[in-house]
Amino acid sequence: MNKSGLKKLDPSIDKLLYMLSQGCILHKVKSGGLLYPRTYYLDTENMVLRYSGSEKRLRKKRISWPISKIREVREGEKDYSKRLDPYDRGRCLAIVFGTNHEVLYLMCDSYQLRDDWIKGLRFALHMDQYMDQKQQTDRWIKEAFQMADKNNDGSLDFEEILKLLKQLNADMDKKYVQELFNKADTTKTRGKPVLDAEEFVKFYHMLTERPEIDEIFMKYDDGKGFWTFTDLCKFFYHEQKLDLTEDQSKELIAAYEPQKQLQLEDHLSPIGFRTLLASHDQQLFNPVHRRVYQDMTQPIINYYISSSHNTYLTEDQLRGPSRVEAYITALARGCRCVELDCWDGPDDEPIIYHGYTLTSKILFRDVLSAIKDYAFQSSPLNPNNRYPVILSIENHCSVRQQTVMATYIKSIFGDLLYAPEEPPNRIPSPHDLMGKIIIKAKKMDNPQMGKKLPRGHSSGDDGEVSDEDEAADVASNNVVKPSNANTDHKIKLSPEFSDCVGFKAVSFKGIEESINSNGMFVSLGESKALKLIENNRAGVIKMNQHMLVRTYPAGSRTDSSNYNPLPMWNAGCQVVALNFQTASEPMQLLQAKFMDNGGCGYLLKPGFLLPDERSTCPPTSRKRLNITIISGYQFPKPNDSKKGEIIDPFIKIEIHGVKDDTQQCKTSVKTNNGFNPRWDEDVSFVLSRPDLAVVRFVVYDQDRYVDDFIGYFALPFHSIQEGYRQCSLLTKRGDKIPQALVLFKVEISEA
């Protein structure tokens, strides 16, 4: 076993990693086919990928990415962007970074070198995923050390350390820092005192001791300076609201106590307790909800479904680029319903783009290939990617190109496609449809099909159906379109394409009309949905007890902004589609809601929103949520902050739910301390419908004019664990901010 707890892949892996750590010249492939030679290094000691630039432009400068930022390493054969078209893809690879899937394209001088880099990078990814808490912390500290080591001499003097602490938001007493510096300097070199990397790790651990956690520890140690397994059981029972057995408490001590002698005696030190409290299972988010635990055998209309609007767009709705990668990004984030706007393209190749706009175009077949490759691919972000993926197709193609689309759908998806010839005797469940891809679109009439499967509006060899409502919505909002464009026209439907449709979409004519239409799907624009909910909430709930109701942003949102999804969810709408490319509060609420149930993209709706025969569970009672915001830890500066400026943080706590439950409050401001701010402030909320509530914590830096966003964390109310809990902060896009934590004490009671 190596230090990360992984078995080596084969005896040659050490040799391979050593070779990659020495550096190799690879060619960065830029847009337009430009090649830039750079020397790349895979440093598994510090878990970073680096490159050094050209002597002319970046003399002695090295740029690096933490391995933890890498989402995927792909062979060049999977180049969905077409950037590698001029080159031999067998010598190329693509490295995908972050939740937003920024891609680095590289070309190697040989096939073997390409394969070596793919193997080495993937092994490093496995190492990173299996690191324990202390290894992750030590790695982050070393990254900070390297950032401060401007002259690359492998050491930091006292002045360099003071500058680094200021960068890390630590405004600390100089005399105290000097004392810790002297303690850590064990080599005592002649001349100017310095700390090497290992000494700096020791110094940093001393500097970042957390007295608020030690205070919790001392409540149960009876002055001994350690806990017995009995003390640990008491802590869990009284504080964490969990009843541990003796064996379970001993297992926790064995896992988190770093001192071997204390382990043997079944004792836990303050350092061990600190590590235990930072573990995944002790976080604010309930670890049980990290797996699929809900009943997945009910009709699919009983579930909320994580859904994307105009999935192909990566920026605005008018001129922005369309990218195949956007589908991969959405699927990796747990999205289970993606949108394809299909139009006639040249050479009988259907294309996808935002019609009547200047957005760029991508090939329909390329999108299908990417969806097939990634629809059910597990990842650390989403290990439960096995439930059905729905393709919401907005069909603007001629009969000829619809037939081409049908050919691609059948040839690319094969047995993955759900398109039954005979009507099922009941609406299928997510479990029934596991591993299936479902086309949602208009469908021709089939007199043989009864209530359970879609029927069309008309019959004939080339059925005639209406366009999706969304096209009309877009075209009516000052969008560039041809003068002869008619968004209310009827289009002919290809029988071959119709045969591929598993879920039939119908135009909304009214609530009762939709229910009686034998359709499976109806779409509502944001404004129409809100008006319906306001005027006839009971009718909307009734409609989505019979079919899937999809909502989408108003056509006026040309900047790809999003609407608040809560009112739609609260009325039972299942497919609430948002612009995934826009990092904002609505997307953060969507990501928070669908963290639940293993992040599989399907959530069983509360009982009161289900048909009567499915409402077997009693109504959820009113709850009181009491939170003590204890402290923060290593908050970063805003991206645009001035050098040397220490932040003044405060935390805003928000409840998003039904109208009566929507509320917020905030802590006091802690001046000049983003390193270890302490609050010990209490807040309390009463929730009438806790089963619909999402709780969001946002850290801001107070500013004279506009407070700066630092990070956030959000989760469903029912996924909150009671007791002393920490949560990691996330960037606007959902990437984890290294080391940034908030410590709470949480109590939940009947209101």
TrEMBL record:
Catalyzed reactions: a 1,2-diacyl-sn-glycero-3-phospho-(1D-myo-inositol-4,5-bisphosphate) + H2O = 1D-myo-inositol 1,4,5-trisphosphate + a 1,2-diacyl-sn-glycerol + H(+)
Pfam families with a match to the protein in the record: C2 (PF00168), EF-hand_1 (PF00036), EF-hand_like (PF09279), PH (PF00169), PI-PLC-X (PF00388), PI-PLC-Y (PF00387)
Subcellular location: Cytoplasm
GO molecular function: calcium ion binding; phosphatidylinositol-4,5-bisphosphate phospholipase C activity
PI-PLC Y-box domain mapped to chain residues: 501-609
EC code(s) of this entry: 3.1.4.11
Domain EF-hand: 136-171
Primary enzyme class: hydrolase
PROSITE patterns xref list: C2 (PS50004), EF_HAND_1 (PS00018), EF_HAND_2 (PS50222), PIPLC_X_DOMAIN (PS50007), PIPLC_Y_DOMAIN (PS50008)
Gene Ontology CC annotations of this record: cytoplasm
Domain C2: 605-731
Source taxon at top rank: Eukaryota
Biological processes, Gene Ontology terms: intracellular signal transduction; lipid catabolic process
Keyword tags: Calcium, Cytoplasm, Hydrolase, Lipid degradation, Lipid metabolism, Transducer
Disordered: region residues: 447-469
Protein name: Phosphoinositide phospholipase C
Organism the protein comes from: Crassostrea virginica
